[in-house]
Design a protein that fits this description.
The protein is α/β, with parallel strands linked by helices. The chain has helices at about 15-25, 35-40, 45-50, 70-80, 95-100, 110-125, 145-155, 180-185, 200-210, 230-235, 250-265, 270-285, 290-295, 305-310, and strands spanning about 5, 30-35, 60-65, 85-90, 130-135, 160-165, 195, 215-220. The protein has two domains: about 5-245 and about 330-355, TIM Barrel, CATH 3.20.20.70; about 250-310, Non-ribosomal Peptide Synthetase Peptidyl Carrier Protein, Chain A, CATH 1.10.1200. Helix 1 (about 15-25) crosses helix 11, helix 6 (about 110-125) packs parallel to helix 7 and helix 11 (about 250-265) packs antiparallel against helix 14 (about 305-310). The chain starts with a strand and ends in a 53-residue tail after the last helix.
Amino acid sequence: MWPPVVLAPMAGITSAPFRVLCREQGGGLFVSEMITTRALVERNAKTLKMIRFDPGERTRSIQLYGVDPDVVGRAARMVADEGLADHIDLNFGCPAPKVTRRGGGSALPYKRKLFRAIVRAAVEGAGGLPVTVKMRKGIDDRHLTYLSAGRAAAEEGASAVALHGRTAVQHYGGVADWEAVARLKEAVPDIPVLGNGDIWCADDAVRMMRETGCDGVVVGRGCLGRPWLFGDLARAMEGDAGRARPGLGEVAAMMARHAGLLAEWHGSETQAVTEFRKHVGWYLKGFEVGGDVRRGLTTSLSLTELRDRLAELDPGQAWPADADGPRGKSSERSHVHLPDGWLDDADDCAVPGAAAELDISGG
């Protein structure tokens, strides 16, 4: 894969329209929103809609979330047998309380035998499709799991592992631990290791690869409102110092196109402009835009109204110097919500109840 860049799955963000925008800017692997394995095998209508890909998407990449090896294996087999995707990524990194309190996401690698069984089932079910693993350092600094989980994933046939250099309790706060990425690369030398965390610009990605020895990067919040970042990443990987610096007029045009793609995808302008509201602040980060205009953009009820509001922006305003940097949520948590007794026995292979997989496709 070149460039060695992955768009991280993000709930409510990495649907097909956003993936299209990012893919047009530069190459890499662009992963779907998180898909619940039980909902997939039960052919939940919402989940089946979420796994649709744009006709031009290659390679089609889907992220699966599950806690039951049998169900995960069936989901992987379904993806392979029905040609639903070309690559499967397993989610062991989600820190959301509604996921960890049920034993999923970043809580699950603590149960090392269960983790190993899930990866094995996915690899076996996927047949010839590559299966990768995305994870965090652990639950907290007292319960780090990434080294043992990385080794287990490699031993069970994972094609690559990606590490977000934060624990679950950090959520998206603090500073990502790039040294942990380097330690994982040393511990897992036989498959690619990808680094994730605090990549806000293309130069951050190059620096992470240089400092940690990792084989590629996973970009999440850094591309929010910035699909141009993937063009920067492609140039940076080739040693080109050129970077995208779109003015507000170009940004507004991209915003209009993003909303239009959402409308085509959902078949509803109302749903599209409502979903697009969360993107407004990310696109306009650093630009001088009045509060009334911002409010108008986040209360528009149709594409026409949204475009009229976008036309009020100053197209000549230059790319702001502080546009790079942290984007999206960044707070830490006081603790990680876990099932009762979850930390009592790391070798316990009991599968969490079915409630751990209900109604959370997309995160």
